[in-house]
Amino acid sequence: MSLAYEEKPDFMASGSVRVRVPAKINLHLGVGPLRADGYHDLATVYQAISLYDDVHAHRSDTLALTIDGEGAGSLPLDDDNLAVRAVKALAAHTGLPAHARLHITKNIPVAGGLAGGSADCAATLVACDALWGTGLSRDELATIAATLGSDIPFLVLGGTALGTGRGEQVNPVLAAGTWHWVVGVAAGGLSTPAVYREIDRLRELGTAPDPAGSPDPLLAALRQPDPEVLAAVLANDLQAAAVSLRPQLRTTLHAGIDEGALAALVSGSGPTCLFLARDAEHANTLAASLAGRGVCRTVRTAHGPVSGARVTA
Ligand code: C5P
After folding, report:
1. Does the domain spanning 7-173+306-311 belong to CATH 3.30.230.10?
2. Ligand 1: centre distance to CA 194 (Å)
3. Which GO terms describe its molecular function (predicted)?
């Protein structure tokens, strides 16, 4: 597809697009064996939660990226940044020049198991599609997203979804409630490949816990609104690996249960920890108690599900 800017006067007029994108958590993360391509087969249930990054894309005749907010100083601004790769991938797909000036305002912790980098990538695809007037469908954007990272298609979609393959094949699932989370952000990140390598090592040693198995009980728990029912079936195969690499996470998880969380689990590959609350008020009191325990760098509250990357202005 090749559309000249001149064919899209609406986008000429505004010259900039803002996209808001959520963080993701995994309510169920079942990790299969290591595949020949270096990935693992997954059966995961994603949920988008109300911690957001914002991507502001401006018309430009070059490609430039600036970032402010949470962890901004530690992030690359070149091709190592997934947002830059998103611009180039969309340009290659549409035949347009890879031109945009991007500014990302980060709230999602970096390397925290919340897919912050993937979120910025999904937001950039949606932003440049609007800015350039290429009008791709969500499915087309998700197809490009899958070439850039395993959880990026989910962040284009949002809501609650089952992820299969290496996580890139996503299908929405029914979620009959809103769930309230306390998000315990650790100091420092964990490398996702290192956490996957650690689960392989623990499995080889025979010391990994039983695998999470089928996501069906979790999917059933999502069809009703009681958080206690959901709490009983949350599962993450990467938790043992994250705790093995960062033993103090065990203290954080126990602190949340001591303070009255319905459940505590590591988010994705960690080190962020998630605590399920009964409702919004309980999430606020739980967050305050956890902050007082000093086991996290920052404590936030969030609810889910929320929508995926969306143009806001
Ligand atoms: O797909 P993405 O680039 O986000 O994955 C980052 C890394 O996480 C991969 O290089 C791989 O080491 C690991 N991974 C995996 N199996 C998956 C998804 C990710 O082993 N299904």
Report:
1. yes
2. 10
3. 4-(cytidine 5'-diphospho)-2-C-methyl-D-erythritol kinase activity; ATP binding
